[in-house]
Every structure is written in C-alpha cells, then in structure tokens.
Design a protein that fits this description.
By secondary structure, the protein is mainly alpha-helical. The chain contains 6 helices and no strands. α3 runs antiparallel to α4. It is elongated. The protein starts with a helix and ends in an 18-residue tail after the last helix.
C-alpha cells in the first residue's frame, strides 16, 4: 500500500506541475497579447495624433483653410466645422478601440459613452458621421448606430446640459 501511496504522490506532483506550467503559459500568452495590443494602440495613437495635428495646422492657416474649402465647394466655416467634427469622431473611435481592447476601465467608459452621446447629439457631427461611417470599421459603426443613436433619439439627453467644449479632450 505504501508503494501505491508513493506512486500516487508522484503522479499528483507531476499533475500539479503540469497544471502550473499550463497556467504559466496562458499568463505569458495573455501578457504577450496585451503587450501587442498596447504596441498597436501606441502606433495607432501616433497616426491619429499626426492626422489631428495636420488638420489643426490646416485650420490654423487662413490661406490653406480657404483653399481647401474652395476645393470642396464649401465656405471656410463649413470646412472648419467638418474638420473639427472629423477630429472628434476619430477621437471617439480611439476611445472605443481602447475600451474594446480592455485598455479602459468600465467606470471610465461610462463617462466617455455619455460624452459620445452628447457629441453625436449635434447635427453637424451626425452629418459628418453619415459621410465617415462608410469607411468606419464594423464594430465602431455598429456601436454608434445601434447603441448611441437610439439613446440620442430618446429623451434621456438634454442638449442644454451638454458641455460641448470638453467633449473628448481627455486623450
């Protein structure tokens, strides 16, 4: 019986070692996935930031803004509103991607979601979204169209209480 007990202890130890090895491999794989996602987010953020800065530079240069507005048969004011709304939609997309990859905590997400509702309450943003949505990825488009728009159309949001100047300036 003692040989059987000894063999049982050895097999149990081997089983526990295998389980711990498997758990370690899963943790390493999850950490590698998270690092890859963070690296992708950094690269994406750099691209978004570069795009944002280029748009802001064009808007700050009156001659360039006038030229680009004429190119698109718009007034300078319409062109600037369109570019600002593009920046704001891209910022919303960045935040959505971070949440999607679990890089934003749920309690922070709720605040961003409310700001997104306030942003898309604006007619000029909705108009820009109709142009932008054709090239947006499926998950983001689905989020805006199925989660944000239905809530905007319900009486939950009071446009008099929105703070448009603070929308998506956190990141």
């Amino acid at each position: 019986m003692s040989e059987f007990s000894f063999l049982n202890v050895i097999l149990s130890t081997i089983g526990i070692a295998n389980i711990l090895t498997f758990i370690g491999l899963l943790m390493t794989r999850n950490e590698m996935r998270r690092k890859r996602l963070l690296d992708e987010e950094i690269l994406t953020d750099n691209l978004y930031q570069q795009n944002r800065e280029e748009k802001l530079e064009m808007l700050a240069d009156p001659d360039m803004a006038e030229f680009l507005a004429k190119e698109q048969a718009m007034s300078v004011k319409e062109y600037k509103i369109r570019m600002v709304n593009s920046i704001r939609i891209n910022q919303t997309k960045r935040i959505f991607r971070r949440f999607q990859h679990r890089l934003i905590r749920l309690e922070d997400w709720e605040g961003f979601k409310q700001e997104t509702k306030e942003l898309f309450f604006l007619p000029s943003v909705r108009k820009r979204w109709e142009q932008f949505r054709l090239v947006a990825n499926f998950d983001f488009r689905n989020y805006i169209d199925k989660e944000i728009f239905p809530e905007i159309q319900s009486p939950k949001i009071n446009p008099d209480e929105t703070n448009i100047n603070s929308i998506h300036t956190q990141l």
